């Protein structure tokens, strides 16, 4: 009879296969005492047929397999398990349902089922997340029966645990029905055998397998509760691997598992392992160093603020470590750092006020490394949360509270900074984002800047710092001069930070630094952070450097020098001695012949301001040769082919008419008939004669 079934089960005709499976089931049930002696010989033909293209054949084979194992010797369970596991991914719901029913029946009725619990439990629980509600319900009912039966069979063993195991954990997930005592105990007793398989399958090459495994892990943790503590090391390794999976579903369920771990395991226990892995993420998870951080964030969300409170300082200190928040630049890593900060703020709330400094260091570091706008937005959101827990309304208040400590933190390493140092970027973030608060801490900030801007320091770093200072000085009342105290330090700043960087040195890098220093100087002159009296105290050192910069190869440097001289003359031109004034105009006049139209116009505007700046001490008669030379040169540019230069020169000469109209009238009349555009001379003569 068995030989016949062996042949007919593999018959090419589908209906024969199905009928053979029915015969096998009936035959096994009819003579169970004798069937078990021959059952093993039917396993191979059944497994050959289990992948048949017709779903009804697959269902029949699965049902027959159930009977063959049930009424066999029990030695062939391992031979069929992998085949049944594959059928859990079958496209046909009927096939998946058949597997669920067969496995459930084995868990309830197989004679040697205790030996196979660790292999059968994951197969049944895998159907818990089936997309068909009926299969989900069948799975839940079967699992409930299995747990109840086991509980009854082991009643004596459970008496001591009964009361303790019936108490629901404090943070148990809302909306989730707690499994029965028997179900929980079954998982707990088999978890040591289940975890290695889960760890292996979570890295399977098939996406569907990895998703099923991640879903299964959630169920196992819901059952194991605090008993998962003793399996923490393999559990964490599995979660790190799963959290770095490219499939979003795998990551989603893995984070759910991590959250459950935070619910059931004491922070004192999991933080010992987890924080060590976070610190050494590059070696723990070289392919996905953000894995430990991702798990930490999810675990923190599952914990309670009360449980985390004693560990808050250690957590914040770890997140603020350079190797944690400053080591890696990947966006996904930075997002996980922020997620941990967000989780800590969300769970611990006001308790986080004690670690505000560390959290601020983390946020400044992430902002310094971030290149994506959405990460910067998340930093701002976290900063608002820090404001809330510290009881202040604005971010600048948080900066005010921690500014001395933050500047001291940065100053420790400043002697080794380069243009690529993260600390330099951190200083920029701190200075630019703290707004008017930075003006309250000039005695701490300026020595740091003074050291970093020495000509011997890294050129790239100086370039970045001057750019930062230019932005701040342009709005000095809202930044460096918010307290009106920048003037006390301005001479040191200009003479020891800016001017040494304006000294000429060969090379393109040195030229770029001079340009950025000029930009900073112009911002200082325009930003309102310096008074005319302060400017007069060191004009003898500043003006020669600005005049020297007019000869720079860089167009931008020449333009900035012209604009700086213009602004300087507006501020202190009336106070300058004639000799100082007479040293300025010849150098500026040279730039009217510049190759750049922009520089030509800027130099003409500077000359116009120069003429308007001639005060009482400047006697037009005594210094007539200077004015005569200047007027003669300007009249040449009044006849320039560029109309913009003509118009700008005309305005400059109008300013000159107020200084010595008779001299200008004489010079204009002398050249009027020689010019290509005498109309400009006529306009100027009319202006002089009208005396307006």
UniProtKB/TrEMBL annotation:
Domain Dynein axonemal assembly factor 5 TPR repeats: 1-161
Name of the protein in question: Dynein axonemal assembly factor 5
Top-level taxon: Eukaryota
Stored SUPFAM superfamilies: ARM repeat (SSF48371)
Keywords: Repeat
Stalled ribosome sensor GCN1-like HEAT repeats region domain location: 499-672
A Pfam family of this chain: HEAT_DAAF5
InterPro entries per UniProt: ARM-like, ARM-type_fold, DAAF5, HEAT_DAAF5, HEAT_GCN1, HEAT_type_2, TPR_DAAF5
Domain Dynein axonemal assembly factor 5 HEAT-repeat: 171-369
HEAT repeat residue numbers: 542-580, 584-622
């Amino acid at each position: 009879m068995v030989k016949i079934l062996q042949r007919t089960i593999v018959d090419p005709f589908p209906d024969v296969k199905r009928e053979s499976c029915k015969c096998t089931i009936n035959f096994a049930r009819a003579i169970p005492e004798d069937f078990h002696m021959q059952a093993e010989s039917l396993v191979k033909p059944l497994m050959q047929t289990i992948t048949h293209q017709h779903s009804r054949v697959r269902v029949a084979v699965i049902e027959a397999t159930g009977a063959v194992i049930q009424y066999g010797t029990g030695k062939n369970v391992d031979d069929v398990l992998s085949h049944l596991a594959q059928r859990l991914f079958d496209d046909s719901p009927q096939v998946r349902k058949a597997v669920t029913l067969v496995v459930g029946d084995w868990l309830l009725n197989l004679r040697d089922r205790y030996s196979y619990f660790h292999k059968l439990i994951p197969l049944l629980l895998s159907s818990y997340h089936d997309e068909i509600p009926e299969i989900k319900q069948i799975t839940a009912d079967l699992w409930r029966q299995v747990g109840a039966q086991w509980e009854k069979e082991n009643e004596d063993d459970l008496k001591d645990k009964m009361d303790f195991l019936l108490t629901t954990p404090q943070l148990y997930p809302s909306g989730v029905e707690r499994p029965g005592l028997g179900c929980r105990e079954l998982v707990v007793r088999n978890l040591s055998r289940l975890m290695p398989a889960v760890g292996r399958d979570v890295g399977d090459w098939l996406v569907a397998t990895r998703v099923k495994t991640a879903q299964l892990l959630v169920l196992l943790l819901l059952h194991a509760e605090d008993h998962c503590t003793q399996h923490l090391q393999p559990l964490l390794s599995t979660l790190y691997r799963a959290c770095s999976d490219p499939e979003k579903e795998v990551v989603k369920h893995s984070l759910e598992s991590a959250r459950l771990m935070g619910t059931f395991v004491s922070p004192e226990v999991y933080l010992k392992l987890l924080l060590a892995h976070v610190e050494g993420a590059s070696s723990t998870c070289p392919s996905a160093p953000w894995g430990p951080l991702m798990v930490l964030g999810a675990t923190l969300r599952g914990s309670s603020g009360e449980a985390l409170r004693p560990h808050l300082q250690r957590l914040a200190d770890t997140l603020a470590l350079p190797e944690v928040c400053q080591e890696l630049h990947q966006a996904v890593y930075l997002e996980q750092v922020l997620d941990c900060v967000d989780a800590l703020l969300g769970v611990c709330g006001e308790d986080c006020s004690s670690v505000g400094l560390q959290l601020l260091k983390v946020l400044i570091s992430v902002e310094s490394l971030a290149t994506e706008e959405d990460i910067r937005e998340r930093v701002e959101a976290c900063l608002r949360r820090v404001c809330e827990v510290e009881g202040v309304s604005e971010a600048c208040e948080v900066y005010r509270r921690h500014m001395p400590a933050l500047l001291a933190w940065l100053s420790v390493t400043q002697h080794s900074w380069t243009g690529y140092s993260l600390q330099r970027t951190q200083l920029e973030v701190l200075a630019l984002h703290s707004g008017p608060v930075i003006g309250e801490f000039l005695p701490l900030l300026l020595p740091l800047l003074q050291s970093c801007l020495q000509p011997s320091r890294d050129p790239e770093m100086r370039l970045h710092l001057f750019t930062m200072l230019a932005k701040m000085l342009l709005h000095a009342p809202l930044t460096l001069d918010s307290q009106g105290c920048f003037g006390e330090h301005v001479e040191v700043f200009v003479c020891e930070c800016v001017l040494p960087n304006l000294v000429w040195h060969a090379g393109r890098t040195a030229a770029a630094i001079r340009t950025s220093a000029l930009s900073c100087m112009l911002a200082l002159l325009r930003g309102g952070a310096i008074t005319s009296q302060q400017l007069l105290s060191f004009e003898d050192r500043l003006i020669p450097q600005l005049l020297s910069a007019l000869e720079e190869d860089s167009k931008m440097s020449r333009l900035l020098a012209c604009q700086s001289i213009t602004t300087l003359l507006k501020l202190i031109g009336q106070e300058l001695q004639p000799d100082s004034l007479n040293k300025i105009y010849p150098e500026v006049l040279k730039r009217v012949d510049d190759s750049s139209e922009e520089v030509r116009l800027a130099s003409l505007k500077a000359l116009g301001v120069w003429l308007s700046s001639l005060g009482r001490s400047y006697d037009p008669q005594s210094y007539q040769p200077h004015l005569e030379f200047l007027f003669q040169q300007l009249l040449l540019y009044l006849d320039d082919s560029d109309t913009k230069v003509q118009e700008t020169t005309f305005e400059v000469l109008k300013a000159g008419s107020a200084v010595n109209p008779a001299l200008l009238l004489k010079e204009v009349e002398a050249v009027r008939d020689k010019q290509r555009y005498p109309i400009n001379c006529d306009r100027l003569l009319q202006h002089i004669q009208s005396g307006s």
